[in-house]
């Protein structure tokens, strides 16, 4: 059983995975290959002069893997809550996890089937988003959400930061104390 399953491998999901894996949490991240970022050319990302969306997504996935994240290139088709966590079905296999982070970009269907509450989106072209508290928790116990699907701006720099924020908040809850991670030279 995984500690954390992250549904979505775009900037929000991969950023959450960087922190959860580095903190020693057994993390799996699912990449359906449908990230909107894969169609972007980024010239407004802090610290990067220019990068294509596919390059950014691939770099984020590679970073997460190097820190210990298991990455599955599979589409999640259902998530069911059980006594000890969640049962995750993909088109190819099934997995178990104690916590879920939804980082599904424009898509809410998988969370809605699980009972996650939604509300109208506020960004252009975003029809619905998940309702979360200030930490990223949804109304379903042990289900968190980050990035565009949680109501932040679609800009990759913002969704990446939101994924990191939610990952840190989840680690902090799991450990019972505030998690801080700073690398030094």
TrEMBL record:
Record-annotated FAD/NAD(P)-binding domain positions: 2-105
Membrane-spanning parts: none
Keywords: Flavoprotein, Oxidoreductase
SUBUNIT field: Homodimer.
One GO MF term attached to the UniProt entry: oxidoreductase activity
InterPro entries: FAD/NAD-bd_sf (IPR036188), FAD/NAD-binding_dom (IPR023753), Ferredoxin-NADP_redctase_2 (IPR050097)
Swiss-Prot/TrEMBL cofactor(s): FAD
Protein name stated in the entry: FAD-dependent oxidoreductase
């Amino acid at each position: 059983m995984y500690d954390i399953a992250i549904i979505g491998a775009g900037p929000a999901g991969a950023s959450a995975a960087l922190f959860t894996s580095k903190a020693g949490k057994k993390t799996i991240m699912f990449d359906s290959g449908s990230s909107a970022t894969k169609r972007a050319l980024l010239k407004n990302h802090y610290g990067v002069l220019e990068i294509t969306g596919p390059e950014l997504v691939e770099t984020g996935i590679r970073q997460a893997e190097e820190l210990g994240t298991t990455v599955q290139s599979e589409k999640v088709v259902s998530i069911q809550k059980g006594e000890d966590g969640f049962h995750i079905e993909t088109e190819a296999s099934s997995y178990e996890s104690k916590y879920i982070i939804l980082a599904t970009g424009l898509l809410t269907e998988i969370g809605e089937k699980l009972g996650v509450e939604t509300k109208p989106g506020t960004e252009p072209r975003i029809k619905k988003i998940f309702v979360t508290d200030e930490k990223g928790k949804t109304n379903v116990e042990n289900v968190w959400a980050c990035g565009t699907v949680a109501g932040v701006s679609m800009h990759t720099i913002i969704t990446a930061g939101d994924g990191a924020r939610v990952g840190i908040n989840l680690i902090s809850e799991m450990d019972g104390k505030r998690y801080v991670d700073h690398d030094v030279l």
